[in-house]
Amino acid sequence: MRSRRILVTGLSTYWGGRLAQTLEADDEVDAIIGIDRRPPKVELERTEFVQVADHHTLIRRIVQGAEIDTVVDTRLVIDSITTTPRKAHENNVIGTMNILAACGGAGGDRSSVRKVVFRSSAAWYGSEQDDPAFFTEDMTRRHPPRTPIERDIVEAESAVRDFAARHPETTVTVLRFAHGLGPDVRTGFSELLALPVVPMILGFDPRLQFVHEDDIAGALAHAVTHDLPGIYNVAADGVLALSEVIGLLRKPAAPILPPWGTGLVLPVLQRLGVRIPPEMRNELRFGRGLDNRRLKASGYRLRYTTRETIERLREHQRLAPLLRDAAGPYRYEREVEDFLRWSPSVRRDPDADWRPTPEQIAQLRRTLDALERDPRRIEPGEPS
Amino acid sequence: MAQPTPDHGASALAPADRRDLLPALEPERQLDDWGFSERVDRVFDRTIYEFYYRVWFRCEVEGIEHVPSAGGALLVSNHAGALPPDAAMITKAIREEHPHPRPVRPLVENFFKGYPGFSMLLPKIGCVPAHPANAHRLLHDEGQLALVFPEGRKGSEKLYKDRYRLRRFGRGGFVETAMRARVPIVPVAVVGAEEAQPIFAHVGVFQKLTRLIYFPITPTFPHLGPLALLAFLPAKFRIRFLPPVRTDAMGDEPWEDSGLVQEVAHEIRARIQEELFDMLARRESVWLG
């Protein structure tokens, strides 16, 4: 199926914005509509932004009104460092439910949505002692989720699975991402690796795998342009030991966390300003590796390996102190965006300009005629 | 050390045709994706393994030609010693005696992944946690040699009085793994490890206190400290590789036939036991061989 009218949730996230930028470059995509609670952070040409929370009825109206055929849900919170568990639950479980309900069509009506791409996280697998070294997509988790965030992710994914079972005509893609790293991604691991000295649990050297933020956007776009029903792991090639990661960042490692009673020390560390969210506790011990061969077999070429992702992060960390106070190159101002897009005073490239169709011209004529006859009696529903 | 047990992972293995999509190892890396460090392994190989292999245990190897030169194979051995030296000696034997020396990946109980220190060291010297999915990737996708001890900890914790009497070979999970990966099983019989570090007793209280899998009393441990687990008695080692058992000609999906799996497991166990008794019968002295 060719996606032409696309709804992107979580437009203000880095990958949401980047995905919209990528889709804008595709001429076959007619409409891109982005929703989020906050304005987007990247410059967008023709994506329309609607500021809305994941409220069920509003999203359904947007989906129906714009005849959306593809929904890309990038809004899942997979890290408790950016928000409170309560808000995360609201967003991850209730929000997912609402968006799926909006995709499902009202009453007896068939929905226009033919494809749903859901951004999930490899945190779904958890991180345990008896885990395999490389998770494949068909593996199940043997232990119940340990932290609220993990529980949310498992619950959200099971809602997506139910949706897929009830709507066999809709292509449902679930992408399980490894931890994202990059200048614009803020996660527990990005914070940990930004510390001048990186703490480790004494006697453990977990194997970790990351994915560059550009590959997050790239994989989402790949899922939009290709039909990939099912679950796909998205992780860069290469699983690195934490000591190797720290070495690549040219930082000293500090094995200061005790192997027993780690949970008791974390609040103390938090007082000192080092925040390690609970879902990272097991990962710092056992790590996690993913098998990304299914994604690669689907035709996606990852741009960065895990090592290169870390190298990019190191370049960014060198630059970060110089850029700290500089404002970002782009700020979303709704009025300015609307002016630039719709005002007739703005000079646009005549070739790329919007041209009315003959029916629209005819309709406009009729309206003008009606105005000439009686300016006060314009029929409602006519284009203004 | 342990054998892989069948569980959810066994039915969820990567499809066969994706071998070419395995990530290539970047030359800049110090560890491979399993966490194996060539540098650390070389240090161990040139010092501790070399000393024990040549001087201390004076290993003698028979039937090295039964280890295939290419492709995956599952080595299956008997297991003994509180800190078993047999894995290291089998690895070293293949490196020293084989015409095409290859690395061997011992599959170890995942207890070690959860114990501080072991968790850091064991992957660096080539050990891989025993999980059916890990074994399948090693054997089938990567075509490596893997070494399992189907007796598991039941073998390494057995007391001196039970020496050379093989324990139960798990639930036959190792046979299933080899069948799925379609690789041969090479049985290995090792004589000497039982006398190198005899266990006289176990202390349950200390086991609970240290959270180890067992807390043995050996000639040197615990009274000489934890490093004393590296002190072995100079028993003479003999390692005998037996003719491989092929698993690729047993039908389409032989692992579904649990009777066949048990039969093969039993047969392999009997052959190793037989060879052990043969080797022990010919042995003149524990220390001189």
Secondary-structure map:
The complex is a heterodimer of chains A (384) and B (289).
Chain A: E1 5-9, H1 14-24, E2 31-36, E3 48-51, H2 56-65, E4 70-73, H3 85-103, E5 115-121, H4 148-166, E6 171-177, E7 179-181, H5 188-194, E8 198-201, E9 207-208, E10 210-212, H6 213-225, E11 230-234, E12 240-241, H7 242-248, E13 253-257, H8 262-271, H9 283-286, H10 293-297, H11 306-323, H12 334-342, H13 358-373
Parallel strand pairs in A: 1-2, 1-4, 2-3, 4-5, 5-6, 6-11, 7-10, 8-13
Antiparallel strand pairs in A: 9-12
Chain B: H1 38-56, E1 60-62, E2 73-77, H2 86-97, E3 104-108, H3 118-124, E4 128-129, H4 132-141, E5 145-148, H5 153-156, H6 173-181, E6 185-191, H7 193-196, E7 201-202, H8 204-210, E8 216-217, E9 238-241, H9 258-282
Parallel strand pairs in B: 1-9, 2-5, 2-6, 3-4, 3-5
Antiparallel strand pairs in B: 6-9, 7-8
Could you explain the architecture of this structure?
The complex is a heterodimer of chains A (384) and B (289). Chain A is of the alpha/beta class and 384 residues long. Chain A has 2 domains: 5-186 and 208-238 and 288-323, 3-Layer(aba) Sandwich (Rossmann fold); 357-384, no CATH class. Chain A has helices at 14-24, 56-65, 85-103, 148-166, 188-194, 213-225, 242-248, 262-271, 283-286, 293-297, 306-323, 334-342, 358-373, and strands at residues 5-9, 31-36, 48-51, 70-73, 115-121, 171-177, 179-181, 198-201, 207-208, 210-212, 230-234, 240-241, 253-257. Chain B has one domain (33-282): Glycerol-3-phosphate (1)-acyltransferase, CATH 3.40.1130. Chain B is built from 9 helices and 9 strands. In chain B, the strands form 2 sheets. In chain B, strands 1-9-6-2-5-3-4 form a 7-stranded mixed β-sheet, sandwiched between helices. Chain B has a two-stranded antiparallel sheet with strand order 7-8. In chain B, α6 (173-181) crosses α9. The chains are: A alpha/beta (384), B alpha/beta (289). The A-B interface holds A 129-134, 136, 138-140, 142, 201-205, 207, 237-241, 244, 247, 259, 285-286, 289, 291-294, 296-297, 305, 307 and B 7-9, 11-14, 18, 21-24, 26, 28-31, 33-35, 110-111, 113-120, 123-124, 128-129, 131-134, 137.
